[in-house]
Design brief:
The protein is built from eight helices and six strands, in the order βαααβαβαβααββα. It is α/β, with parallel strands linked by helices. It has one domain: Decaprenyl diphosphate synthase-like (Undecaprenyl pyrophosphate synthetase), CATH 3.40.1180.10. A six-stranded parallel sheet has the order 3-4-2-1-5-6, sandwiched between helices.
Length: 235
Amino acid sequence: MVEAPNHVAIILDGNGRWAKAKGMPRTYGHKAGADNVEPICRAAYDMGIRYMTFYAFSTENWSRPDDEVSTLMNLLGDFLKKAKKTARDNNMRVRVIGDMSRLEDKLQKGIAELMEESAAYTGLTLTIALNYGSRDEIIRATNHMIEDAKSGKLTMPVTEEIFSGYLDTADLPDPDLLIRTSGEQRLSNYLLWQMAYTEFYFTEVPWPDFHEEELKKAVEAYMNRDRRYGGVKNV
């Protein structure tokens, strides 16, 4: 049996379907999903998890209906307003990864302020993947390396460690466990490089109903697995 995961990544799936099942608009589900972030972070920290990374909005999500995208951006704004106090009260560091350039200036400013104000906190590190896509991240990292190579800041050959240092997650350990809610079983362009040896856990439970007991089930399933990282088990 392995120890509890140090870093858990979650794909927050099923908000819209959860709302539809209740006869409510998809936006109702996104609000419920946003409200579930803080209690899950608290529960995770109590279990010994020190890093949580949530897939909140992908580079592909811009293709959703305009009213849904608008609601998601408004929820983000509300989250940023509340998160400063939440981070302070819980000693929680908050980071945002992804391409921030497409977001409104007001949101970019709020994100920068939140990250700066919570940078020294030493409890749980919460990372929000926003306008994030792993292929986009890898391309951005590669272009950055090319620029540094031209200016002499980067020497060859490039190693895994050097490449990882150009990714959005440069200061984070790789995820030990990926959880995807609501029944889908795919990565959806999420942390492709970082999850080379991550354990996967899929559940039919939609994100708004994924509470502490469901997190415990996922962690217990992880702890009963045999992580060999390409090697063989000692006998």
